[in-house]
Amino acid sequence: MNQHVPVSDDTLAKRNAVVLACAQSLGGASPAIVVSLGGIVGSQLVTDQAFATVPVSLMQLGIACGVIPAAMLMRRLGRRNGYLIGALVGVIGASVAASGTGSRMFWLFCLGTFLCGVYGSFVQSYRFAAADTASEAFKPRAISWVMLGGLAGGVIGPQSVYWTRDLTPAAPFAASFLAQGGLALLAVGVVLLLRAPPVVEKRSGGGRPLSEIMRQPKFIASVTAALVAYGLMSFVMTAAPLAMVACGHSIGDAALGIQWHVLSMFGPSFFTGRLIARYGKEKITALGLLLTAVAAIVGLSGLSVAHFWIALVLLGIGWNFGFIGATALVTDCYRPEERVKVQAANDFLVFGSVAIASFSAGGLLSAGGWDSVNWLVFPPVAIALALVAWQGFRRRSAAA
């Protein structure tokens, strides 16, 4: 009697995956817009350019602060209701950011980008929601479909900036943030189509104490690699649009650079899993970290549009390999009953580090220029590579 898992059982999962991919394409456009314009608008609203990238940093902080409350809200109200609330927060955040831009009030603009980050904390879990109703065989494909939505978001966001940036001459870029709010409003309608299963809260012993899990050498190596991959990506990405404009390149060039960067972040996801299966988690993680270092080398090699764009593309691919590989390594660190708390701790550490990296980018760019941003990539990469190599050696020694 195995009739409860026929092929047709994935009909709902496929439907939900398509819905979430569409929602991802709209929600994924939000951070691309903030990253493209946050530092540029910030530089127009403050006299001290060290604070120019604070709006982008606050978006990252909003993601970090929102991850755990979003999970708690969805646990209580269900995924669909949680995502509806998240999308409405996105509408409010974008509207506040547009108002801050139009009124030239820096604090109001920062509040808006922070709220956009809170919206992003809901969007981050779309890929997990796609697997809720999927069979084991379909789960990887369901997640891939949502990642395809991320690719679309990487195009929609910068293109929204490109087509709306000059619509409000009296309030530069306010129209772009209004467009961002419009995309979040469209996401409300899309999320209403989601047919998520009811939430069933499971109680268990919870496994080992979190402190014990976090002291494992493999957890330290895995999380360090994830922190470096994501943190450095955010650090360089936050500074890049501002550096491009400072070098005399256009807002459109900066927005397109972010578009290519976001596409490079999500595009490799369709074969990263196969690469990990073939070559191992440590090798692909290390390759991602090395590509991040190569991106910095390209950034140090010149200041043309091509140099910036190539560096951003390599940075995106490096993030994909490094972060997905490190995430796969983290899954080796916990037992099934420990999954929720370890994943929450991992996400909080990662997005907290992203916020810190983003906060520091503006000050470092203002103090030392684009070169200083790129030179600071190498030490963290070296540390993470050493830890990943050490973990790979330990794994091979144990297998022997």
Automatic annotation (TrEMBL):
<feature type="transmembrane region" description="Helical">
    <location>
        <begin position="50"/>
        <end position="74"/>
    </location>
</feature>
<dbReference type="InterPro" id="IPR020846">
    <property type="entry name" value="MFS_dom"/>
</dbReference>
<feature type="transmembrane region" description="Helical">
    <location>
        <begin position="346"/>
        <end position="367"/>
    </location>
</feature>
<feature type="transmembrane region" description="Helical">
    <location>
        <begin position="219"/>
        <end position="246"/>
    </location>
</feature>
<feature type="transmembrane region" description="Helical">
    <location>
        <begin position="142"/>
        <end position="161"/>
    </location>
</feature>
<dbReference type="Pfam" id="PF07690">
    <property type="entry name" value="MFS_1"/>
</dbReference>
<keyword id="KW-0812">Transmembrane</keyword>
<feature type="transmembrane region" description="Helical">
    <location>
        <begin position="258"/>
        <end position="277"/>
    </location>
</feature>
<dbReference type="InterPro" id="IPR011701">
    <property type="entry name" value="MFS"/>
</dbReference>
<keyword id="KW-1133">Transmembrane helix</keyword>
<protein>
    <submittedName>
        <fullName>MFS transporter</fullName>
    </submittedName>
</protein>
<feature type="transmembrane region" description="Helical">
    <location>
        <begin position="173"/>
        <end position="194"/>
    </location>
</feature>
<feature type="transmembrane region" description="Helical">
    <location>
        <begin position="105"/>
        <end position="122"/>
    </location>
</feature>
<feature type="transmembrane region" description="Helical">
    <location>
        <begin position="309"/>
        <end position="334"/>
    </location>
</feature>
<feature type="transmembrane region" description="Helical">
    <location>
        <begin position="373"/>
        <end position="393"/>
    </location>
</feature>
<feature type="transmembrane region" description="Helical">
    <location>
        <begin position="284"/>
        <end position="303"/>
    </location>
</feature>
<keyword id="KW-0472">Membrane</keyword>
<dbReference type="InterPro" id="IPR036259">
    <property type="entry name" value="MFS_trans_sf"/>
</dbReference>
<feature type="domain" description="Major facilitator superfamily (MFS) profile">
    <location>
        <begin position="217"/>
        <end position="400"/>
    </location>
</feature>
<feature type="transmembrane region" description="Helical">
    <location>
        <begin position="81"/>
        <end position="99"/>
    </location>
</feature>
